[in-house]
Each structure stands twice: as structure tokens, then as C-alpha cells.
């Protein structure tokens, strides 16, 4: 057979050592932000049915979980609080002794070096289940900003390291940045849920956070999944208003958006691997249909390849164990 001229790409794939040498993207524990759901009460560790392996924790059990997360080398958690009391003003969102504020202090007592990220939203704290104030059946933007900024400030005062507003009200980054700066918290960074879609992938989270809307939906403030250019406008506004980091939520169906943000901005980009993305993999693995570890790590590597610097994921403890085992 005549010798042909062609590229032999397989030369760089012919051993595990060679593949490791030329690997372009890696997942590490330093990439991870671990979500935790904190509830009121005592001795509560209650698994969320639609999210196997994810729990509601009362503060005493939460302290144990913080220690486990820390021992696994995960550098950051994000807190979601579920209060016993809800009212139209979402008052428990910014109460000094609110469940998130207590959890921040508890986590810092257990591990002062853990980066405490806090979700800033109103949906868990009011009966309507919406992310802003509701007036006459409408989610009103500007009156919501004051309460969102007040919530962010209360988190900073409790000891939070990173503030992450998820509400998608226009102007929220500017309002929060101004309030933090005016109260001496100029050094607290803001991680904006800059690109948050009105997605079908949030169902299990709404069960976990008890935050499903009591009427309508969130399409007037969360983004249309069909839109990409709009995502760039949203991100641009948040950058101009003072965001230090940008998040894309969900991640799996929106890796094109992660890549576009990566190409446009030099700020850290965070991918939120959301609840249904987690639940689908867990369900398939429980049925023996997939290799869970391989699918999880391939997905995380995909987020990194798309341009994410950090990954907020319910798989973070699993990933930390995989990495410790030498995956």
C-alpha cells in the first residue's frame, strides 16, 4: 500500500500518562461551590425526595455538614434558607436572627476560612413565592430593590464573604453595591446571577426551597430560554453596576452562553449545575442506566471547557470524593 500523508492525532492518546500531559481542562475541588438548605428547628436532617443525597439541615446538623464539606476540601458553600414564617414584606430575609444569618455565623464558627456565599432573593420568604414584592398581582421592580439590598447588607453584617443576588430585578446589582459600600462593606464582592433563564430545570429546587410561585410564573423577570443576545445585555448591565463575578443558570443547556460570556468578559464566570440536572443523573444512575461518576465528571469538564471558572453543583461532595480517589 502506498504510504499516505496524514496527521496521526492518536500519538498523543496512546497512554494514560500521555493523555494527562496534554489534557487541556481539569476539574478540582477549588472550582466547587456547595449548596446547602438550612431550616429552623433541631436535629433535622431530612432528605429532599426529588434530590437524592441532598438534605434540609437544622443549624445543629448544618454544623456537622459544614465540617464534612471542609474536610473534603471544598472551599465554599452557598446558603439557601427556608424560614418557618413568611410575610408579604419577606421580613425573615433580612432579619438579624433569620435562618441564613444564623447559618452564616454558625459556619464561620466551624470553619473561619470557608467562603460563605449567600443567595439573595425574596421568593423563600413571602407567601407569593416570587423574587420581588407583589402589588396587585404584579411583581414590582423598584420597590423590591430596597429589600434586596437590605437582605444583602444583613448577610454581610452576619459575616458572609460573597453576596449572590438571584432575583433578576433590574438594577439590583447597583442597589446592593451602593448599600454595601455605604455601610463599610466595600470589600465584599458580588456574584451576580447575571444570566438566569425561566427554565424547566428548577423543579426540584423549588421543592427544596419551598419557593414555587403561588400564582403565575417568573417569565416577566427571568429570561426566555430562546434568547442569547439578551444574555449579553443582562451581563453588561451587571458589570457596569459593579458585579465582580457572573453566573449562568442553568448550566448544562446553556454552555453556549457560558462561552460567550467567557469570550467577552475577564471576570470569573460561574456555572450553576441546577437541581434537575442533578436529579436526572441521580435517577438514571439509580436505575443502572449510566456510570454516574463518568457522567458527572464529563459534565463538569464540559463546563470548564466552555469557560466556567467555578461550578455551583449539588455533586460537589461526590466530585471531591472522586478526585481524592484519583479520578
TrEMBL record:
Catalyzes an early step in the biosynthesis of tetrapyrroles. Binds two molecules of 5-aminolevulinate per subunit, each at a distinct site, and catalyzes their condensation to form porphobilinogen. It comes from Tumebacillus lipolyticus. This is Delta-aminolevulinic acid dehydratase. Keywords: Heme biosynthesis, Lyase, Porphyrin biosynthesis. It catalyses: 2 5-aminolevulinate = porphobilinogen + 2 H2O + H(+). It comes from the Bacteria. GO terms for molecular function: porphobilinogen synthase activity. Coiled coil: none annotated. Homooctamer. It is an enzyme of class 4 (lyase). Pathway: Porphyrin-containing compound metabolism; protoporphyrin-IX biosynthesis; coproporphyrinogen-III from 5-aminolevulinate: step 1/4. The keyword Cell cycle does not apply. InterPro entries: ALAD, ALAD_AS, Aldolase_TIM. Belongs to the ALAD family. Gene3D superfamilies: Aldolase class I. SMART domains: ALAD. Transmembrane segments: none annotated. Signal peptide: none annotated. The lineage of its organism: Bacteria, Bacillati, Bacillota, Bacilli, Bacillales. Its EC number is 4.2.1.24. Pfam families: ALAD.
Amino acid at each position: 500500500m502506498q504510504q499516505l500523508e496524514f496527521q496521526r492525532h492518536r500519538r498523543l492518546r496512546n497512554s494514560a500518562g500521555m493523555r494527562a500531559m496534554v489534557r487541556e481542562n481539569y476539574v478540582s475541588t477549588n472550582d466547587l461551590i456547595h449548596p446547602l438548605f438550612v431550616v429552623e428547628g433541631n436535629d433535622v436532617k431530612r432528605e429532599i425526595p426529588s434530590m437524592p443525597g441532598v438534605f434540609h439541615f437544622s443549624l445543629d446538623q448544618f454544623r456537622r455538614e459544614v465540617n464534612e464539606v471542609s474536610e473534603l476540601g471544598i472551599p465554599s458553600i452557598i446558603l439557601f434558607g427556608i424560614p418557618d414564617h413568611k410575610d408579604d414584606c419577606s421580613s425573615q430575609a433580612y432579619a438579624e436572627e433569620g435562618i441564613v444569618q444564623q447559618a452564616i455565623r454558625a459556619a464561620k464558627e466551624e470553619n473561619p476560612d470557608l467562603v460563605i456565599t449567600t443567595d439573595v432573593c425574596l421568593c423563600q420568604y413571602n407567601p407569593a413565592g416570587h423574587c420581588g414584592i407583589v402589588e396587585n398581582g404584579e411583581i414590582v421592580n423598584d420597590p423590591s430593590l430596597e429589600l434586596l439590598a437590605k437582605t444583602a447588607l444583613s448577610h454581610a453584617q452576619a459575616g458572609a464573604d460573597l453576596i449572590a443576588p438571584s432575583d433578576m430585578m433590574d438594577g439590583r446589582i447597583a442597589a446592593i453595591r451602593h448599600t454595601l459600600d455605604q455601610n463599610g462593606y466595600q470589600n465584599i464582592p458580588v456574584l451576580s446571577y447575571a444570566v438566569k433563564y425561566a427554565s424547566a430545570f428548577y423543579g426540584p429546587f423549588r421543592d427544596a426551597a419551598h419557593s414555587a410561585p403561588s400564582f403565575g410564573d417568573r417569565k416577566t423577570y427571568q429570561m426566555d430560554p430562546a434568547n442569547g443576545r439578551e444574555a449579553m445585555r443582562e451581563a453588561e448591565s451587571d458589570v457596569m453596576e459593579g458585579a465582580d463575578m457572573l453566573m449562568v443558570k442553568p448550566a448544562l443547556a446553556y454552555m453556549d452562553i457560558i462561552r460567550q460570556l467567557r469570550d467577552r468578559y475577564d471576570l470569573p464566570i460561574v456555572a450553576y449545575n441546577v437541581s434537575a440536572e442533578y436529579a436526572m443523573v441521580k435517577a438514571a444512575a439509580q436505575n443502572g442506566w449510566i456510570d454516574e461518576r463518568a457522567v458527572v465528571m464529563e459534565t463538569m469538564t464540559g463546563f470548564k471547557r466552555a469557560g466556567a471558572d467555578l461550578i455551583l453543583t449539588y455533586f460537589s461532595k461526590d466530585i471531591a470524593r472522586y478526585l481524592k480517589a484519583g479520578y
